[in-house]
Specification:
This protein is mainly alpha-helical. Helix content is 47%, strand content 0%. It is built from five helices and no strands. The longest helix has 17 residues. It is globular, with a radius of gyration of 19 Å.
Length: 131
């Protein structure tokens, strides 16, 4: 009896989780562009892209730089290096997600939450650079 109950809840959770995938073209939440979490690269955003790159270098390279290794990385994944364009392009969505989480356990361990305008500049840089 207990095994059937556990299986029922597992299968029910799976079935309910699969339902949103049925039913056509849902563009997703209104505040998230359909192009993904990075959104689109806005036209004439050169200054904002420069500010985003500068923010990454000022705030992130101390732990997420190619020259940083071992304990100095503070637990930062070795494949995410904000001073390496290939790494930035490959990990752009993950970088933005972690920056948005800021000082939460899922985000940056240093407890820093960047201001929203800075996060938006980084988003624009990543969206334009990752294309």
């Amino acid at each position: 009896m207990r095994v059937r109950t556990i299986l029922f809840f597992c299968l029910a959770s799976f079935a309910i989780g699969a339902l949103p995938g049925c039913g056509g073209d849902d563009p997703g939440p209104k505040d998230e562009p359909s192009t993904g979490t990075l959104g689109e690269c806005p036209p004439d955003s050169g200054a904002q892209q420069t500010a985003g790159l500068q923010a990454l270098q000022d705030n992130c390279v101390a732990c997420h730089g190619t020259m940083v290794s071992g304990p100095s990385r503070g637990g930062a994944p070795p494949e995410v290096n904000v001073d390496d364009p290939a790494s930035v392009s490959a990990e752009a969505e993950e970088i933005l997600a972690a920056i948005k989480l800021g000082g939460t356990p899922e985000g940056m361990p240093v407890g820093v939450k960047l201001p929203d305008p800075t996060i938006e500049s980084i988003r624009v840089y990543l969206a334009c650079d990752a294309e």
